[in-house]
Request: fold
Amino acid sequence: MKLKKISFATVLLIAILAVAPVVAFAQTSTFRDVPPTHFAYEAVNWVSDPANGAFMVGNAESNFQPGRHLNKFEAAQVFAMAAGFRHVTDNLPTAEREVFSRSFDTWRPFLDTMANEYSTWNRTVDREIAFLLYRQILTTYDVETFVTRTGNEETRPLITREEAIVWIIRLMGQAPYVPSAAPQNLFSDDSSITAALRPYVYHARELGLFQVTDGNFNPQAHFTRAEMAVVFFNALAEDEEEAATATAAAAGTPTTITGTISNVFLDTHVSIVMATGTQSFAIAPNVVIMVDNVHRSAAFLREGMTVMGLVDANRQIINLVARSEEPEEEAPIAAPPRPEGLSLYSDEGFITGITAQNITIRIQRVRISGQVIDEERTFTFAPSLTVTHGGEPADLDEIQPGDIAFFNFNGTIIYDLDLMLRERTIEGILIEARPPENVGGIPVLVIEESYGRTYELRAFPATEFTRGTTANLNWYDLRIGDAITADVEFDRLVKVEATGERATVYGRLNEIRITERNTEVTITNQDGTISSYFIRPGVLEVYNLRIGMQIRISLDSREVMYIQPQEGTSPAYLLGFIQTVRNDGTIVVVEGQGATARTHTITLNNNTLITRGGAVLAPSELRVNMNVYILQTAAQSNVARYITILP
Reply:
């Protein structure tokens, strides 16, 4: 039986549900190179009409270029627009915006792999390709043919006629339908059609989507833009004659119904909850169904979808527009308590799979020794599982493959799961920078957020670095202690903006710690506080420094750029407690404890400044047992320049 061409929903339904309506094509030529006598005149005007999505348009010179062929990137742009893709989503409903975001999130890792594989990959079409993959109009096998390589030469091949037919059948919502009794040798060149694609080509021929020449389909040839417009027109445009015939055949005017699907029976009947109660309807053989603005078969209908449709006099649904709706929130069920004394361990990774009971997480990290850990582990959900999304309560159905998971577990049971989108912005402080030779050839930056969570993020040649007003930097131009705003995908740094300040500090060197990561120096500052600063390996030689030295440090954020010992090696400051306060303007201060304790007699003069918590004190306010930090006027001097009373 010859099938009816798949059409858009009727103007009545589409107008009500804000789907792009099908209207009559313009009667005057839109393009200079497609006159009214052109064989594709009607089709070109239809595919370029904004009312139909304008998914094939001309150039700035008002030419449609009807004889040009499409490479697969260009074809993907056209098919995505025909399927409902939108570049600007600001004014769309939230649910529709999320479709575009979710499709790109889901398929971006795969597209990144393709872009890394081929230098001629057209990244400007990534979002359209992701949308087509998400809508199942394309498969990864299809996308892997967008660029071919022969030796070192890369080519963007044109889309063949048989490939274009497969895409259009899927766009119509017919895939993976294959005619059960496809005729054999439908074309003279039948044997040259790829065997796996032959049923789609047969199906398209039955639907009358294209014409053949001399009985040949020419599967490896290419549709021109004009021919492609005709295929789209035949597949998607409303067949007014058939629609009128179907309407006349029905006894009376079709009835409009609205409601929510309560059940679907074998793709032949559907129950709908309406204001007048629940009713069951048959699904007409030639029904036109749109699910979330995409042509679909009845197999895509699900319980809970809101629908609006047309029913004929025989109670058959002849047109149906369905939308996926989030189920109403149910009252939360109290989770069973966790076992007392349960020890939980923490980890993080990327979700690669999820079922109703289990979740598979890929755990990747680079140890400081350079060892790369890359493994997948499957966990079972605990009855008391708590799920959050960015710290906010969430449901299991919000989990998507590719999400980042921070989780607590014991054995193979997962108890807490905090989700984070793989594309996100992190703000914090750079606390570590591991050079590539230490971590498997890829530099790693460790960023700590204000509430203490740390992220180990990898820097790649494509990562954009800026610091202050300086752009086009590299990871090693950043400094420990920089304030960081980073755009992150998975554990990859996409863009990093850093802010830091230069400063000079003075103090006494207390400690030098040399580790695999860096060298850390600790000093007592002039105000008595203790600070630690960092030196990257190979930047400065520290072996000529001595504990107790008075030093001057040039800083960039918290990273040491230069250390200069001050004159003399004896301390120019003193840290201890007051043992005695004398009437002659001197005090006795004890430094150290036990056998290493030493006493110092310190002289005060009119220039000595005494402070406590920012307040200035008089010498008469000094008391025995006060903890003090004393900066002397010079090395080997016993005259106090500053005395700070410490807690």
User: Anything to note?
Assistant: Confidence is low (pLDDT under 50) at residues 1-28, 175-182, 239-251, 327-332. The CA atoms of residues 311 and 317 lie 4 Å apart.
